[in-house]
Amino acid sequence: KNQVEQSPQSLIILEGKNCTLQCNYTVSPFSNLRWYKQDTGRGPVSLTIMTFSENTKSNGRYTATLDADTKQSSLHITASQLSDSASYICVVSGAGFQKLVFGTGTRLLVSP
Amino acid sequence: EAGVTQFPSHSVIEKGQTVTLRCDPISGHDNLYWYRRVMGKEIKFLLHFVKESKQDESGMPNNRFLAERTGGTYSTLKVQPAELEDSGVYFCASSHLGLAGGLTLYEQYFGPGTRLTVT
């Protein structure tokens, strides 16, 4: 069964600190892995997209890594800001027309 | 460039009633997707249009759900009759069309969602 699991479920960090979110997947065949940020009441917004041949990709203070052999990914947030408070969702796509399989997300709260 | 828009933002209906959700994709995007998040669960795929054709509707839960995309522009998702378990947030997303059979990566842009509550 195609699944995406994320940890932790929730996380509280102090403003300015770094954090790392984890994602494990069993989707096969694998096409690409995406990290989305979802603010409350909004739709998900893409942060990074990586194919199996990429093992790291950055978008500002966000850096995603991918290990296609172990089927693991991480999202590292550097120097967190209050605006980083949101849900972060790992999404994996199989082959073809990019049907997406979503994780349940990690809810991040950055406190002052 | 305007983003994906969805209407209404919220809908509260009684069990047995009919509700129609609307999605306007980004202009020029041939791919249109519907997703749903029910309380406490992950977002799940419902179906995928390429222009006006249904490419994949494997995620549609049952025949009470009907999606259309006449003319290949906006799309509607009708739930008739609504049941309590249909409550959740319905998201629409759109993207450019990739090469046929290829693995071209096109970002999916999501709308803000429609929160449906069936009482």
Helix content of chain A: under 10%
Order of helices and strands of chain A: EEEEEEEEEEE
- Rg of chain B, alpha carbons: 14 Å
Percent strand of chain B equals over 45%
Shape of chain B: globular
Low-confidence runs of chain B: none
The number of distinct β-strands of chain A equals 11
Sheet/helix structural class of chain A: mainly beta
- Major β-sheet of chain B, in short? 7 strands, mixed
Distance from N terminus to C terminus of chain A (CA atoms, Å) equals 41 Å
How would you describe the overall organization of this protein?
By secondary structure, chain A is mainly beta. Chain A contains no helices and eleven strands. In chain A, strands 2, 4, 5, 9, 10 and 11 form a six-stranded mixed β-sheet that branches. In chain A, strands 1-3-8-7-6 form a five-stranded antiparallel β-sheet, with no helix packed on it. Chain A is globular and about 45 Å long. Chain A starts with a strand and ends with a strand. The mean pLDDT of chain A is 93. In chain B, strands 2, 4, 5, 6, 9, 10 and 11 form a seven-stranded mixed β-sheet that branches. In chain B, strands 1-3-8-7 form a four-stranded antiparallel β-sheet, with no helix packed on it. In chain B, strand 7 (65-68) and strand 8 (75-79) form a beta hairpin. Chain B has strands at 5-7, 10-13, 19-24, 31-37, 44-50, 53-56, 65-68, 75-79, 88-95, 109-110, 114-118. By secondary structure, chain B is an all-beta fold. Chains A and B meet through strand 5 and strand 10 of A and strand 4, strand 5, strand 9 and strand 10 of B.
